[in-house]
Predict the structure.
Amino acid sequence: MPSLFEVSAGKLTGPTTGGTVTQATNKSTGVTLNTESGQITMNNAALAAAAEVTFTVTNDKIAATDCVVVNHGSGGTAGSYLVGVSTIAAGSFKVTVTNASAGSLSEAIVINFVALKGASS
């Protein structure tokens, strides 16, 4: 049985569907993206120093047993944001973004995500 990841010649095999979505209104506004991986462009509303915000990603590909991995992909000040998944449920997951800098930031960062299928047994 082949592995999900192929390490030869710089190849990576994983989810085959991806997409993009842009947050409207503010940084806590939820988004919908029904793909196994993708990019979320956040709204450029201000996020105070040391503040965090959480928003919901509605996604019909997500099961409660899945593992969703996120990272700060591009945009904004490098090293100034901490990004993580705080909740996974059937049909959605929540992303929490923290401003780790000493000042308020108003940047439309891009978050990359991928859903890895999991099982409970």
